Task: inverse folding
């Protein structure tokens, strides 16, 4: 028996592992264990150090991303092309790490003052980030699924972090049940894909799908996979968990979900569409077209009626998701395929800045007002002009007003859709334009409170914003402004042929 | 013979699956799940995937369902639930329509696909070739996903401990943004 096993050892060749390319993931894994271990061994009084440590882990993971980008060789493939580190993956990894860093800054004081568990929170968040970083490089159904679970399962628990609040428990349970259901639908579709194409590798699936007419089961498979991921990006009609979860979860966690988890869902969607289904335009384009239209319209109409700022931002994030879906709905038509990837990535980056910023303002203001109502922002300009100014930046940017970042993001999306040049694309552009106007209404309503209304209870003591939140506000405000004024910084992504080249095989 | 095994195993899977949903008592539902998982194991044997069949029985039918039963009994929900309350009246008919629709959709797709699908390579019936293929796949092509799955265990352990532990201290005024 033993001899037989030893004899087989000769045939075994270990997979080639590019340690440099894997370094961000490895640093995160080490960091997860480090945070967990140190958290167990320090006293209650020094738990604040965990946030700092988590920040350093994220920065350390950022270093190899930067060095890989500086070296700049087109792409590093591992495991027979199942795990690819190219510019596309590096940009997304950078976005995820940056978002996580800002969320750590935002959550530090919330957790400390609320008396919540801190070390474990950061462990779970790092695990979630690991899943996202892995998702950016995954080019295989198995690793996409593992990455998706790795980023969602910690998120279910983070949603329920305020354990003594019923709404937070509800948020966690709802997110968990619907998330698991979505995973099951996704997995069902993936099993069909594997069964009918004989491979889990995205590129090979793409080749098989391109080689002939789609058979019925492949059509069902693609529809199921897209529906499963639509849950993750909270696209209508799969959005029903989002408002309740966003409202019930702690505010920094909501910011994390509405930016990072959503972006990870879009990354999976992009990898699948551009690598596995590029020829199945007849299936995914109409599907995503409908999703995009419903998402932006329903999200906007619901957002108009909200009086709670977090719920409003939740619906606004649903509706922004519709805009991010737009380029994917025309990804296979005309000249759009090249610019669609860029439009989505640029939107994700700018959306990350402005949405995180809006949540940071909400955290800073609600520390004083203890309220989540939009009316509680009344008189903000009077007692905190700086905060009013940054809130204006974020709201105006979310509404898409030039010269802020949100405008560039929306402009790119529209340009891609117009590039496609089909009738459906023009219809989509018109619907999106109408929606942009509707969206402006509820963002402006917040600004009206900030600038015109008096403080609701006449309380005009200045805000005491803690330093980490100020830092988060600074990073996001500068990001939103700079990307709006100097869009060349990110639009240059599109000139890197490998961004789309790597995807286009 | 092969057809007979297929029909019996599929019958087990379907009866078990319907049982999971239809049974009133959660313990019975869990037992229905055992039946389903055994049926899948029989399918694996019929397809020469002996290792998977063994794993299916040991891990799923053995460990996981036992865990289910444990939880059901610990939580004391081993009695029938009253399911007649209906908060949204349209829910149930809608669920039936969507369920039937999905079955018809997938069924039609399978029937139309029947002849066009390419057969995969035959597995060797004898020896341990199955395990070897699986191991090769797991430890070369999928090794990263396999290793990172272990991080999920950290998540599961840390999360379970946290979710079941009492909240450490209460600071009621500093609760949150809502309300």
Result:
């Amino acid at each position: 028996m033993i001899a037989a096993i030893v004899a087989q050892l000769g045939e075994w060749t270990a997979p080639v592992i590019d340690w440099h390319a894997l370094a961000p993931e490895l640093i995160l894994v080490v960091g997860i264990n480090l945070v967990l271990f140190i958290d167990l061994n320090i006293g209650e009084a020094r738990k604040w150090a965990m946030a700092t440590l988590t920040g350093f882990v994220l920065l350390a993971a950022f270093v190899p991303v930067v060095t890989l980008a500086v070296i700049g060789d087109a792409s590093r493939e591992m495991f027979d092309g199942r795990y690819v580190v190219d510019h596309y993956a590096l940009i997304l990894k950078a976005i995820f790490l940056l978002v996580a860093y800002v969320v750590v800054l935002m959550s530090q004081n919330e957790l400390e003052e609320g008396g919540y568990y801190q070390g474990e929170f950061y462990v779970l968040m790092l695990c979630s980030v690991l899943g996202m970083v892995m998702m950016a490089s995954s080019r295989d159904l198995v690793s996409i699924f593992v990455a998706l679970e790795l980023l969602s399962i910690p998120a279910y628990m983070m949603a329920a972090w305020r354990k003594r609040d019923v709404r937070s428990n509800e948020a966690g349970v709802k997110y968990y049940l619907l998330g698991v259901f979505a995973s099951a639908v996704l997995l069902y579709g993936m099993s069909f894909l594997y069964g009918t194409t004989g491979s889990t590798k995205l590129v090979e699936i793409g080749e098989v799908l391109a080689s002939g007419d789609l058979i019925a089961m492949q059509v069902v498979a693609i529809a199921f996979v897209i529906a499963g991921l639509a849950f993750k990006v909270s696209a209508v009609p799969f959005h029903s968990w989002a408002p309740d979860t966003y409202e019930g979860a702690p505010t920094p966690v909501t910011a994390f979900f509405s930016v990072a988890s959503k972006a990870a869902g879009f990354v999976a969607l992009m990898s699948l569409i551009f690598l596995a289904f590029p020829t199945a335009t007849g299936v995914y384009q109409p599907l995503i077209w409908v999703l995009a239209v419903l998402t932006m319209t329903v999200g906007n109409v619901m957002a108009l009626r909200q009086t709670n700022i977090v719920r409003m931002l939740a619906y606004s994030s649903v509706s922004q998701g519709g805009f991010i879906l737009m380029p994917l709905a025309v990804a296979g038509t005309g000249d759009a395929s090249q610019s669609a990837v860029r439009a989505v990535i640029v939107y994700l980056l700018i959306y990350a800045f402005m949405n995180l910023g809006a949540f940071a303002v909400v955290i800073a203001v609600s520390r004083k007002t203890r309220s989540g109502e939009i009316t509680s922002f009344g008189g903000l300009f009077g007692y905190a002009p700086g905060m009013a100014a940054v809130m204006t930046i974020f709201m105006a940017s979310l509404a898409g007003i030039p010269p802020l970042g949100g405008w560039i993001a929306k402009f790119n999306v529209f340009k891609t859709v117009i590039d496609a040049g089909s009738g459906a694309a023009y219809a989509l552009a018109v619907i999106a334009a109408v929606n942009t106007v509707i969206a402006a209404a509820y963002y402006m309503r917040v600004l009206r409170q900030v600038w015109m209304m008096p403080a609701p209870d006449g309380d005009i003591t200045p805000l005491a914003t803690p330093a980490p939140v100020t830092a988060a506000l600074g990073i996001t405000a500068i990001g939103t402004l700079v990307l709006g004024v100097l869009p060349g910084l990110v639009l240059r992504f599109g000139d890197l042929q490998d961004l789309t080249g790597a995807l286009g095989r | 013979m092969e057809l007979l095994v297929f029909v019996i195993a599929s019958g087990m899977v379907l009866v078990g699956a319907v049982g999971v949903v239809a049974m009133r008592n959660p313990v019975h539902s869990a037992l229905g799940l055992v039946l389903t998982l055994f049926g899948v194991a029989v399918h694996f044997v019929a397809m020469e995937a002996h290792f998977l069949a063994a794993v299916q029985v040991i891990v799923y039918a053995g460990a996981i369902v036992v865990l289910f039963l444990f939880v059901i009994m610990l939580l004391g929900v081993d009695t029938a639930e009253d399911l007649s309350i209906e908060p949204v009246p349209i829910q149930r008919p809608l669920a039936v329509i969507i369920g039937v629709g999905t079955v018809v959709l997938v069924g039609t797709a399978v029937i139309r696909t029947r002849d066009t699908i390419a057969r995969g390579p035959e597995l060797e019936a004898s020896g341990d070739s199955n395990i070897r293929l699986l191991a090769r796949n797991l430890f070369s092509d999928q090794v990263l996903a396999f290793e990172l799955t272990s991080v999920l265990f950290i998540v599961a352990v840390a999360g379970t401990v946290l979710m079941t532990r009492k909240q450490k201290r209460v600071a009621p005024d500093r609760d949150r943004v809502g309300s």
